[in-house]
Write a structure and sequence with these properties.
CATH class: Mainly Alpha
Number of strands: 2
Distance between the termini: 53 Å
Order of helices and strands: HHHHHHHHHEEHHHHHHHH
Bound molecules: protoporphyrin IX containing FE
Shape: globular
Helix content: 55-70%
Largest sheet: 2 strands, antiparallel
Mean pLDDT: 91
CATH architecture: Up-down Bundle
Number of helices: 17
Radius of gyration: 25 Å
């Protein structure tokens, strides 16, 4: 016998309340539209999942607010971001359910919704802000602040998130605290730079010695090598890096970038594996959000063509412009620019390898 009082399924889930929240405007106005039920339920399902995603982001952000993030927390953070990405896959798939409603069916009740719009989803804005979409990056909606479309109670909630550090900012601080980047007998910065120079010199020689290239093509490829070299230079030159941050072309500090590169390059070292997975999952979340934005924009185009949205924006056009501009972890995507082949990696000193390994490791490799 449980020491807790028995509870009835419907009561636990408060289904009476939940299932009485689907009130069709078309019915209220005496012109019942069959598909409005689907429209409401799909949106409500989204908002429930948004609530779960916020729950996960809140817990991850709390872990990273501590000055020291212990390894157990990284494991938990990894599993929670992974949960978010699984939810996102559902969110993308769900659009297909809504697309079983044709544009003509939508027209049956669309006018009853004006000026309500997904644009007013305060939970969606909370997710964006908590992850790190900054106001400077946001595309203006009808030349006005997105907050203007919300009621004060929701505006207040969103303003609170603006005051707190976002996941992007917390991850930056965490990366900046990464130890190991320079120890007494190893300076990763210098060793890595030498390896990059070697790699670029090697690529340059391949181009120079490639007899099949025309002079024009050779010149073009050598120019590209030079551009890649300049890209790497920015990484080694903090003031140039900071200029890019000012222009909004980079978001993470150069120290954080360097740490992220280190984690990516040496991810096979046991201690760096979870941090690597975590960074990789942040890239995955960003990619899923981008995919959702794109799929939603396409659906909107299909549903309303080039009409303006019920919220009054340029509809499909506005949404398409957010697809690329509202990405958050772009610096982590760009890390691939700075990766060098495993064979060129600076060898870590013994004492550092010991620090990065688990004491019970038998040193065997399992990569074939
Ligand atoms: C028939 C289906 C849908 C249509 C025609 C539609 C249309 C639009 C349009 C035109 C906008 C731009 C703002 C405006 O002027 O209204 C918008 C924004 C938005 N919609 Fe939808 N939508 C649909 C379904 C959904 C669903 C199922 C969700 C899930 C929650 C959703 C969430 C959003 C969000 C979050 C925004 C703001 C996006 C941003 O500002 O980046 N929409 N929608």
């Amino acid at each position: 016998m449980s020491k807790f009082p028995p509870i009835y399924y419907s009561d636990y889930l408060e289904l009476d309340k939940l299932l009485s929240c689907q009130n069709l405007k078309s019915e209220e106005y005496g012109n019942s539209a069959h598909d409005e039920m689907l429209f409401i339920i799909v949106h409500q399902a989204y908002e429930l999942w948004f609530k779960q995603v916020i729950h996960e982001i809140n817990s991850i952000n709390r872990m990273f607010e501590d000055d020291v993030v212990d390894e157990k927390s990284i494991g938990i953070a990894v599993s929670r971001v992974q949960r978010i990405t699984e939810i996102q896959k559902l969110l993308i798939e769900q659009l297909k359910v809504l697309e079983t409603m044709t544009p003509l069916d939508f027209l049956e009740f669309r006018d009853f919704l004006i000026p309500a719009s997904g644009f007013q989803s305060f939970q969606f804005r909370l997710i964006e802000n908590k992850l790190g979409l900054s106001d400077e990056k946001r595309i203006q909606y009808n030349n006005a602040d997105y907050l203007n479309t919300l009621e004060p109670r929701h505006r207040d909630l969103i303003m609170q998130t603006v005051k707190r550090p976002s996941l992007l900012e917390l991850v930056e601080k965490w990366l900046e605290r990464t130890p190991f980047l320079s120890s007494q007998n190893f300076n990763f910065w210098e060793s890595y730079r030498k390896s990059v120079d070697k790699m670029l010199e090697h690529d340059k020689n391949i181009i120079i010695n490639n007899k099949t290239l025309t002079e024009k093509k050779r010149e073009f490829q050598l120019k590209n090598i030079e551009l890649t070299r300049q890209n790497f230079e920015v990484l080694f030159d903090e003031s140039k890096h900071n200029e890019l941050v000012k222009k909004g072309e980079r978001h993470l500090s150069s120290r954080a970038m360097l740490a992220a590169i280190f984690i990516n390059l040496y991810r096979d070292e046991p201690i760096l594996h979870l941090p690597f997975m975590f960074l990789n999952l942040l890239v995955e979340t960003d990619e899923q959000f981008t995919e959702w934005r794109y799929r939603h924009a396409l659906m909107v185009h299909r549903m309303i063509g080039s009409k303006i949205g019920t919220g009054g924006s340029s509809g499909h056009q506005y949404l398409m412009s957010t697809v690329d501009k509202h990405r958050i972890f772009t610096d982590l995507f760009n890390l691939s620019t700075y990766l060098i082949p495993r064979s060129e990696l600076p060898k870590l000193p013994e004492d550092l390898v010991k620090q990065l390994g688990f004491s019970y490791s038998n040193g065997r490799k399992y990569d074939s």
